[in-house]
C-alpha cells in the first residue's frame, strides 16, 4: 500500500505547517505528514518552510533572528485566508505530542541547506527519542551531509535524501550517504528509476504530486509513498487503484 504523506499538512486547504493543517490531514486519512524544521534564535525547533517569515506570516526577517516567544506573536494563518487569523507557528514538540498516540508517520525535513543551524540534528533527534517515536519518523534534507550526520547520531531513525534533479544511478548515491531511501521530485523519476531503487532495498517517496493522473502513474510504478498537498484526493486514488 502506498503511504499517503500530507505535504506541510493538508496545505491545499489550510495554511501550511500549522496544527490545523496537520489535524485535518489526519482527519482526511493521511498515513503521514511531511513538515519542515527550523530553529529559533534561542534554540527552539519550529515547523516552518521558508528561512524568512515574510511569505506566510505578518512578520519580516529570518527565523534565526527571532526568539520562540517573538515568533509566537506572529500570525501564520491570515496570509492564507481571513478564516485562519490568529493561527501560530507550531513547535516540533507540539506535532509530536499530537501524533504520539496515533499511527501517523512523520517526515521531518531539516531545513539546513541555506542556513547552518548549529546542532539542529542532535536537537531534533533528542526530541524524537524523548517521545519514543524513532520508528515512525523519517528525516530528510537537501543537505545530504546532514543526513549522514543524522544516521551517525542515531542509526535507528530512517533517513531519506531529498533531490530535485535527475541523478545517475541514484540507488548507488543513496547508499554512499548511508540513507534508507530517497525523496525525489516527481518529474525527476520514471518507472525504471523506481524499480532500480527498490531492487536495492531502498524506499522511494516522491513529492509533490497533486494531479490524480500522476498519482496513478506513480502508484502503478511502485513507489512506497507520495507526498501531496491534497491527502483526501490521494486517498481516493489509492482506494481506486
Automatic annotation (TrEMBL):
Gene3D superfamilies: Phosphatidylinositol (PI) phosphodiesterase. InterPro entries: GP_PDE_dom, PLC-like_Pdiesterase_TIM-brl. PROSITE patterns: GP_PDE. Residues 2-238 form the GP-PDE domain. Pfam families: GDPD. GO terms for biological process: lipid metabolic process. GO terms for molecular function: phosphoric diester hydrolase activity. PANTHER family: GLYCEROPHOSPHODIESTER PHOSPHODIESTERASE, CYTOPLASMIC (PTHR46211:SF1), GLYCEROPHOSPHORYL DIESTER PHOSPHODIESTERASE (PTHR46211). This is GP-PDE domain-containing protein.
